[in-house]
Amino acid sequence: MLIDLRSDTVTQPSAEMRTAMAQADVGDDVYGDDPTVNALQAEAVRLSGKEAALFLPTGTQANLVALLSHCQRGEEYIVGQQAHNYKYEAGGAAVLGSIQPQPIEANPDGTLPLDKVAAAIKPDDIHFAKTRLLSLENTISGRVLPLEYLQQAWQFTREHKLALHIDGARIFNAAVALNVPLKTLAQYCDTFTICLSKGLGAPVGSLLCGSEEFIQRANRWRKMTGGGMRQAGILAAAGLYALEHNVERLKEDHDNAKWLEQQLRDIGVDIAEPGAQTNVLYLRQSPELAAKLGPWMRERGVLISAGPLTRILTHLNVSRQDLQKVVDLWREFLQQRA
Ligand SMILES: *Cc1c(COP(=O)(O)O)cnc(C)c1O
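That is the input. Now the predicted structure with pyridoxal-5'-phosphate docked in place:
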């Protein structure tokens, strides 16, 4: 078995999850007839405290549909320079929605400075796009946005009449790290997404949560962007299984990341962002070393996206024992080159 540390998207559905998928009751979800999709959406409502939820194939589409539902053509959203829904979604909001992004530089902790957000809000003037939305990401690069910041951002957007969207691909990692229920985070935004296909271990699927009225609009955009699925309960069953069984255990991934950080530091690896809060670790190394490390590890059954800045993720298919093996190999690698 390979030890794959490239991402938490590489997680494999377990035998129990596959059984749940095989046994799911299904119907045509475009007609609203799929009982398992409906159960998953209801569970997201229960956990988040939002009025409604929508199941989508991917996190990218969930963010796109959210942006399309918040902003009209010629309007804009304020977003972090490194945010997934600005930088890593192929410019979808601009291409498909004629929505202008207004990126701003984030603080080192991943928060967007609210004074800079305020300065980026356009006055009501025919020269400018209309600023509609602030979009934050939680977790961002494995960092958890502080609760006080979420409260401030929520208050700020109320005062400035902006909507607040959270790209919460890994929001359960944030909730588990803070030891709070999802509701505590969800109360400080209008809408947010959840990826089921990362550390939660489902093969596919994301959720978009918000008000009843917002989700109705989002449902039309989901159809238009080709995300209306039919007997999708087969997929939703994996999501339901993940929400029931794989949320609490994220703490193991976080503990493993902390442990790995300590072990790698002890053998002389340069930790780029010390103090792992969730399941993401960044390491720094010379380009020469990085170029050798990737293939060397691969030959020994470990997959790492080795680069000058290496991102490592822990997840449910990586045990402490696996990580011990990685540390031992890494030590051997460094010793050979010393
Ligand atoms: C992975 C990710 C997404 C997109 O999810 P996909 O399902 O891969 O499309 C969106 N936002 C963040 C922060 C992510 O990490």
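The first strand starts at residue 3 and ends at 4.
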